[in-house]
Every structure is written in C-alpha cells, then in structure tokens.
Amino acid sequence: MPARRDGVASARSPASRSNRACCIAAICAYLSSGYNSGAWTGPGIVSSSADAHHGLGFGDGADGVIAGLASNAIVVQWARYGDLNLDGTVDMSDLILLAQHYTRMGQNWDQGDMNYDGEVNFSDLLTLAQNYGGTASIAQPLASLASAAPAPDELTTHARRRRVA
Ligand SMILES: [Ca+2]
Ligand SMILES: [Ca+2]
Q1: N or C: which end of the chain has fewer CB within 10 A?
Q2: Number of domains in the chain
Q3: Closest-lying ligand to the alpha carbon of 2?
C-alpha cells in the first residue's frame, strides 16, 4: 500500500460534465490564489503546514492518475512537491506524468503543474527534480478554506491515516 498523507479534502464531482468542469475550475482557482508563490496564504485554499518541499496537491479521478480515486471524485491533499500521483513518493512515475504534459497549458497538479500557473514548464520540472526520491513522511493537518473562498457545495473533509509501506 503506498503512503498517503493525513489531511485530505475530497469531493464528489457533479454529475453533468459542464458542472463537473466548473467545480474543478473553481477548486483550481482557489488553489491557484491560495498558493501565493508557495506560501499557501493567499485568498483561497490555504495550508499552515506548507514549506519549501510541501504544499497542496490536486487530483481529478477522471484521468485515473490517482490510485483509488473514483472517476467522479477529486482530491486536494497535502503532498511533497513532485508527487503528482499523490502516492507519497516522488519517483519515476511522477516524472513520466510531467514529461507527458511538458510545455502544455491548462494543466493541473496531477499533470505536472505544481505552482498552479496552469503551465507545465521548466519551473515545474526543477521542482520535481529538487524533490526526487523524497517522501511526505510527517503527518500534517488538513488544508483549510480561507474565508475569502466559499467552500464548494459538495466539498467534504476527512482525515485518513494509513500505514506507510
Ligand atoms: Ca508519486
Ligand atoms: Ca507550472
């Protein structure tokens, strides 16, 4: 079983494709504004546990990148930068994901965009390289929603604790 972090916010996507796209776009906008150059203190989804190597990752179950995430679900999870598939380790599988989307616009965390500027570029590659081989091994609290960002209707939060493999 791969390592997963405590501190996970997940949501079921709305049934219709257009509503689903809106939900994902809204959460990505909250992550982008909360990111605040890596401080995670902006007006959006924030984290008091972020540091130079950890922030908030995002995954959309529709693309099958996040193991165990239902196709109609999305997840926001405290993670090590570079851990695109949110399995707790930054390794070759993450590098391959980034390479598959390199230079593309309109991408998410699980496609390689870790600074939430929408593009997978050298900055993201450098971030992955700096964290390659690393794990997210310290339990951290759940990300919180700042008051400036209204919570999505179906956003639920729960804490999970799993054994590290
Ligand atoms: Ca990984
Ligand atoms: Ca980027």
Answers
A1: C
A2: 1
A3: 1
Query: Mind listing the pLDDT tens digit for each residue in 64-122?
Result: 999 999 988 899 999 999 999 999 999 999 999 999 999 999 999 999 999 999 999 99
**Residue 90 forms part of a structural domain:** yes
What one-character DSSP code corresponds to residue 155?
E
Q: Which ligand has the minimum distance to the alpha carbon of residue 114?
A: 2
Among residues 63, 61, 64, 35, the alpha carbon closest in space to that of 50 is found at 35
Distance from the CA of 88 to the center of ligand 1, in angstroms? 6
pTM for this prediction: 0.77
Longest CA span, the chain: 39
Question: What is the domain range of residue 106?
Answer: 8-158
Distance CA 44, CA 74 (A): 17
